Amino acid sequence: MARNTRVIAVANEKGGVGKTATVVNLGAALCKLGKRVLLVDMDPQFNTTKGVGVKVTDEMLTTYSLLQNPGEFSAVDAVIPTKWDGLDLLPGHIDLSGAEVELADVVGRENRLKEAMSSLNGSYEFILVDTPPSLSLLTVNVFAYAAELLVPCQTHPYAFDALEDLFDTISVIREEINPGLNITGIIPTFYDSRTRVSRKVMERLNSHETYKKILFKTIIRTNTTLADCAEVCKPAVFYRTKSFGALDYMALGKELIKRKPSATPRL
Hints:
Helix content is 42%, strand content 13%. It is built from 13 helices and 7 strands. The protein starts with 5 loop residues before the first strand and ends in a 9-residue tail after the last helix.
């Protein structure tokens, strides 16, 4: 049955902000809320792939296969099911690290992912795409493909300061590649109410003239379960359902479903 698919990039040019944890756990939460979800791993570290318990083999088609041979393979060929019904994966691969150099002289290289993913139009309600923690050709491919952007922001001064550079990048992407890319929201992550730093950054997010307009109400609290999930390769909502990690991502999933991209202010 055809669906209206929301294609969402989860990105931040700063590492360590909870980007992959958000892709894995938000995707699982949306699945648990009855949505059909595809996770797309565009990070050479392929931690989203590991996070849902998938081991990459030499025979497996991955996002690297699609970028290298868009005419030979389509995304339909590369998608694999996870252990949880309704949650599928397009796995990543370490060879993605070489794509920047390999595609440097290829015409239309920034649209390779978009072209390959066209075979999946309408197959899912949500497609969440993980990105590298830097502005690279891989990230540009994701931005060219996505219609929405979620920005995890660790409640730390360095992460807050990095938001300005990210939004400058998005402005350039809109002007030159994808005018339809909207920032659906900023997600506060690693929040610890016991620390002055976390509280101060939350105050800055809530008082900033631009950021406060798109800040999610849901806050992802610091929680050891999220680290444990990475070790056991299971999303929190399927591993420890009563943990802060599971509860926060379920709340975020519900908020995202209600937050329509058409209502998102352009920055």
